[in-house]
Amino acid sequence: MQELRTEPRQRRSQQSIDAILDAAEQLIAQQGQVGFTANELAAAAGMSIGRVYYWFPDIPAVVTALVERSAVRMAQVFGASVQAAHGTTTPLLLQRAIRQMCVYVEENPAAVALCLTGGNDGPGRVMNERLVEFATSLVRDRVPGIPDHETEIVARTAVGITLGMLNGYNQVEAQFRPYIEQELVYVLSAYLYARFPPPDDFTWTAPERAVQPSRPSRRDFTESGRVWPALAPDQPT
User: Fold this and answer.
1) CATH 1.10.357 applies to domain 65-198+212-221
2) pLDDT tens, residue by residue, 55-85
3) DSSP notation for 162-212
4) Where are the domains of the chain?
5) Is residue 155 within 8 Å of residue 129, measured between CB atoms?
6) Cα(122)–Cα(28) distance, rounded to whole angstroms?
7) Shortest CA distance to 77 belongs to which of 137, 140, 134?
Protein backbone atom coordinates (compact mmCIF):
# COMPACT_ATOMS: atom_id res chain seq x y z
CA MET A 1 0.00 0.00 0.00
CA GLN A 2 1.33 3.45 -0.93
CA GLU A 3 2.48 5.26 2.19
CA LEU A 4 0.91 8.64 2.75
CA ARG A 5 2.85 11.57 4.12
CA THR A 6 0.34 11.61 6.99
CA GLU A 7 -1.99 8.81 8.09
CA PRO A 8 -5.69 9.74 7.97
CA ARG A 9 -7.24 9.84 11.43
CA GLN A 10 -10.75 11.06 10.75
CA ARG A 11 -13.45 10.51 8.19
CA ARG A 12 -12.93 14.05 6.93
CA SER A 13 -9.26 13.27 6.35
CA GLN A 14 -10.14 10.22 4.23
CA GLN A 15 -12.53 12.39 2.27
CA SER A 16 -9.64 14.75 1.48
CA ILE A 17 -7.53 11.85 0.23
CA ASP A 18 -10.40 10.53 -1.89
CA ALA A 19 -10.94 14.02 -3.32
CA ILE A 20 -7.28 14.14 -4.38
CA LEU A 21 -7.44 10.70 -5.98
CA ASP A 22 -10.76 11.50 -7.68
CA ALA A 23 -9.25 14.70 -9.09
CA ALA A 24 -6.20 12.80 -10.35
CA GLU A 25 -8.56 10.26 -11.94
CA GLN A 26 -10.41 12.98 -13.86
CA LEU A 27 -7.22 14.70 -15.01
CA ILE A 28 -5.73 11.47 -16.34
CA ALA A 29 -9.01 10.62 -18.07
CA GLN A 30 -9.12 14.06 -19.71
CA GLN A 31 -5.46 14.08 -20.78
CA GLY A 32 -5.21 10.39 -21.68
CA GLN A 33 -1.94 10.17 -19.76
CA VAL A 34 -0.29 11.01 -16.47
CA GLY A 35 0.88 14.55 -17.09
CA PHE A 36 -0.82 16.89 -14.61
CA THR A 37 0.95 19.27 -12.26
CA ALA A 38 0.47 19.72 -8.54
CA ASN A 39 -1.26 23.04 -9.16
CA GLU A 40 -3.69 21.43 -11.60
CA LEU A 41 -4.37 18.64 -9.14
CA ALA A 42 -5.03 21.05 -6.28
CA ALA A 43 -7.40 23.12 -8.42
CA ALA A 44 -9.28 20.02 -9.59
CA ALA A 45 -9.56 18.77 -6.00
CA GLY A 46 -10.79 22.14 -4.78
CA MET A 47 -8.07 22.57 -2.17
CA SER A 48 -4.76 24.33 -1.65
CA ILE A 49 -1.55 22.85 -2.99
CA GLY A 50 -0.29 22.74 0.57
CA ARG A 51 -3.18 20.45 1.47
CA VAL A 52 -2.25 18.09 -1.36
CA TYR A 53 1.37 17.97 -0.16
CA TYR A 54 0.14 17.41 3.38
CA TRP A 55 -1.08 13.97 2.30
CA PHE A 56 1.22 13.09 -0.59
CA PRO A 57 4.93 13.90 -1.00
CA ASP A 58 4.74 14.19 -4.80
CA ILE A 59 2.66 13.43 -7.90
CA PRO A 60 4.05 9.89 -8.40
CA ALA A 61 2.81 9.02 -4.92
CA VAL A 62 -0.67 10.23 -5.88
CA VAL A 63 -0.62 8.13 -9.05
CA THR A 64 0.59 5.06 -7.15
CA ALA A 65 -2.22 5.41 -4.62
CA LEU A 66 -4.73 5.83 -7.47
CA VAL A 67 -3.42 2.70 -9.20
CA GLU A 68 -3.70 0.72 -5.99
CA ARG A 69 -7.27 1.86 -5.46
CA SER A 70 -8.21 1.03 -9.05
CA ALA A 71 -6.49 -2.36 -8.88
CA VAL A 72 -8.49 -3.34 -5.80
CA ARG A 73 -11.72 -2.38 -7.52
CA MET A 74 -10.69 -4.25 -10.66
CA ALA A 75 -9.97 -7.40 -8.66
CA GLN A 76 -13.46 -7.22 -7.19
CA VAL A 77 -15.01 -6.87 -10.64
CA PHE A 78 -13.20 -9.81 -12.19
CA GLY A 79 -13.41 -11.94 -9.08
CA ALA A 80 -17.18 -11.97 -9.52
CA SER A 81 -16.78 -12.84 -13.22
CA VAL A 82 -14.54 -15.82 -12.48
CA GLN A 83 -16.94 -17.15 -9.87
CA ALA A 84 -19.76 -17.01 -12.42
CA ALA A 85 -17.74 -18.75 -15.13
CA HIS A 86 -18.69 -22.36 -14.51
CA GLY A 87 -21.60 -23.60 -16.58
CA THR A 88 -21.60 -20.47 -18.73
CA THR A 89 -20.75 -20.39 -22.43
CA THR A 90 -17.64 -18.41 -23.25
CA PRO A 91 -19.31 -15.66 -25.32
CA LEU A 92 -21.99 -15.17 -22.66
CA LEU A 93 -19.29 -15.01 -20.00
CA LEU A 94 -17.47 -12.43 -22.11
CA GLN A 95 -20.67 -10.44 -22.45
CA ARG A 96 -21.12 -10.32 -18.68
CA ALA A 97 -17.46 -9.58 -17.99
CA ILE A 98 -17.36 -6.76 -20.55
CA ARG A 99 -20.53 -5.27 -19.06
CA GLN A 100 -18.82 -5.25 -15.67
CA MET A 101 -15.68 -3.80 -17.22
CA CYS A 102 -17.65 -0.98 -18.83
CA VAL A 103 -19.27 -0.13 -15.51
CA TYR A 104 -15.83 -0.21 -13.90
CA VAL A 105 -14.43 2.14 -16.57
CA GLU A 106 -17.31 4.55 -16.03
CA GLU A 107 -16.64 4.58 -12.28
CA ASN A 108 -12.84 4.68 -12.75
CA PRO A 109 -12.37 6.82 -15.87
CA ALA A 110 -8.56 6.83 -15.69
CA ALA A 111 -8.31 3.03 -15.60
CA VAL A 112 -7.81 2.46 -19.32
CA ALA A 113 -5.26 5.26 -19.67
CA LEU A 114 -3.33 3.88 -16.70
CA CYS A 115 -3.37 0.37 -18.18
CA LEU A 116 -2.15 1.66 -21.53
CA THR A 117 0.78 3.40 -19.82
CA GLY A 118 1.70 0.12 -18.12
CA GLY A 119 4.86 -0.98 -19.90
CA ASN A 120 7.56 -2.58 -17.79
CA ASP A 121 7.74 0.16 -15.18
CA GLY A 122 4.73 2.36 -15.94
CA PRO A 123 2.14 3.32 -13.32
CA GLY A 124 -0.53 0.99 -14.67
CA ARG A 125 1.60 -2.14 -14.93
CA VAL A 126 -0.16 -3.75 -11.94
CA MET A 127 -3.60 -3.11 -13.44
CA ASN A 128 -2.54 -4.34 -16.87
CA GLU A 129 -1.21 -7.56 -15.36
CA ARG A 130 -4.46 -8.05 -13.45
CA LEU A 131 -6.34 -8.02 -16.74
CA VAL A 132 -3.86 -10.47 -18.25
CA GLU A 133 -4.30 -12.76 -15.24
CA PHE A 134 -8.07 -12.77 -15.71
CA ALA A 135 -7.76 -13.45 -19.43
CA THR A 136 -5.26 -16.22 -18.71
CA SER A 137 -7.60 -17.91 -16.25
CA LEU A 138 -10.42 -17.76 -18.80
CA VAL A 139 -8.33 -19.30 -21.59
CA ARG A 140 -6.99 -22.07 -19.36
CA ASP A 141 -10.48 -22.90 -18.15
CA ARG A 142 -11.92 -23.07 -21.66
CA VAL A 143 -9.05 -24.67 -23.60
CA PRO A 144 -7.73 -27.89 -22.03
CA GLY A 145 -4.00 -28.56 -22.26
CA ILE A 146 -3.03 -25.20 -23.70
CA PRO A 147 0.71 -24.50 -23.19
CA ASP A 148 1.79 -21.49 -21.14
CA HIS A 149 3.37 -19.56 -24.02
CA GLU A 150 0.20 -19.80 -26.11
CA THR A 151 -1.96 -18.84 -23.14
CA GLU A 152 0.06 -15.69 -22.60
CA ILE A 153 -0.07 -14.71 -26.29
CA VAL A 154 -3.86 -15.11 -26.40
CA ALA A 155 -4.41 -13.39 -23.04
CA ARG A 156 -2.28 -10.37 -23.93
CA THR A 157 -3.91 -10.12 -27.36
CA ALA A 158 -7.38 -10.16 -25.80
CA VAL A 159 -6.37 -7.53 -23.23
CA GLY A 160 -4.86 -5.35 -25.97
CA ILE A 161 -8.07 -5.55 -28.00
CA THR A 162 -10.16 -4.73 -24.93
CA LEU A 163 -8.09 -1.73 -23.86
CA GLY A 164 -7.91 -0.43 -27.42
CA MET A 165 -11.68 -0.49 -27.86
CA LEU A 166 -12.39 0.89 -24.38
CA ASN A 167 -9.87 3.71 -24.77
CA GLY A 168 -12.53 5.97 -26.21
CA TYR A 169 -15.43 4.56 -24.17
CA ASN A 170 -15.64 7.48 -21.74
CA GLN A 171 -14.84 9.98 -24.49
CA VAL A 172 -18.09 9.42 -26.38
CA GLU A 173 -21.59 10.38 -25.38
CA ALA A 174 -23.44 7.88 -23.22
CA GLN A 175 -25.84 6.80 -25.97
CA PHE A 176 -22.93 5.55 -28.10
CA ARG A 177 -21.21 3.49 -25.43
CA PRO A 178 -23.43 0.40 -25.83
CA TYR A 179 -22.22 0.12 -29.43
CA ILE A 180 -18.59 -0.06 -28.31
CA GLU A 181 -19.55 -2.58 -25.66
CA GLN A 182 -21.45 -4.74 -28.15
CA GLU A 183 -18.68 -4.68 -30.75
CA LEU A 184 -16.15 -5.69 -28.13
CA VAL A 185 -18.24 -8.76 -27.29
CA TYR A 186 -18.38 -9.67 -30.98
CA VAL A 187 -14.67 -9.11 -31.57
CA LEU A 188 -13.46 -11.12 -28.57
CA SER A 189 -15.98 -13.91 -29.18
CA ALA A 190 -14.96 -14.17 -32.82
CA TYR A 191 -11.24 -14.09 -32.00
CA LEU A 192 -11.46 -16.86 -29.40
CA TYR A 193 -13.84 -18.93 -31.52
CA ALA A 194 -11.61 -18.68 -34.59
CA ARG A 195 -8.60 -19.81 -32.56
CA PHE A 196 -10.31 -22.41 -30.37
CA PRO A 197 -13.46 -23.80 -32.00
CA PRO A 198 -15.17 -26.78 -30.30
CA PRO A 199 -14.05 -30.31 -31.31
CA ASP A 200 -16.94 -30.91 -33.71
CA ASP A 201 -16.73 -27.55 -35.51
CA PHE A 202 -16.60 -27.70 -39.31
CA THR A 203 -13.32 -25.76 -39.39
CA TRP A 204 -11.38 -28.88 -38.42
CA THR A 205 -12.36 -30.49 -41.73
CA ALA A 206 -11.91 -27.38 -43.88
CA PRO A 207 -8.14 -27.14 -44.47
CA GLU A 208 -8.64 -24.65 -47.30
CA ARG A 209 -9.71 -21.93 -44.85
CA ALA A 210 -7.23 -19.06 -44.62
CA VAL A 211 -7.64 -18.84 -40.84
CA GLN A 212 -6.82 -22.18 -39.25
CA PRO A 213 -7.80 -22.99 -35.64
CA SER A 214 -5.13 -23.63 -33.04
CA ARG A 215 -6.66 -26.28 -30.77
CA PRO A 216 -10.17 -27.31 -29.68
CA SER A 217 -11.92 -25.63 -26.79
CA ARG A 218 -14.29 -27.25 -24.37
CA ARG A 219 -17.67 -28.05 -25.86
CA ASP A 220 -19.40 -25.35 -23.82
CA PHE A 221 -17.68 -22.61 -25.83
CA THR A 222 -20.96 -22.40 -27.72
CA GLU A 223 -24.59 -22.99 -26.96
CA SER A 224 -26.44 -25.39 -29.26
CA GLY A 225 -23.44 -25.43 -31.60
CA ARG A 226 -23.42 -21.73 -32.42
CA VAL A 227 -21.64 -18.63 -31.21
CA TRP A 228 -23.71 -16.78 -28.65
CA PRO A 229 -24.91 -13.50 -30.22
CA ALA A 230 -24.26 -10.26 -28.42
CA LEU A 231 -27.29 -8.27 -27.34
CA ALA A 232 -28.35 -5.24 -29.30
CA PRO A 233 -27.48 -1.90 -27.65
CA ASP A 234 -31.07 -1.21 -26.63
CA GLN A 235 -31.56 -4.60 -24.97
CA PRO A 236 -31.01 -5.09 -21.24
CA THR A 237 -28.09 -7.18 -20.06
Assistant:
1) yes
2) 999 998 998 899 888 888 888 777 666 655 5
3) HHHHHTTGGGS-GGGHHHHHHHHHHHHHHHHHHHS--TT-GGGG-TT-SS-
4) 65-198+212-221
5) no
6) 14
7) 134
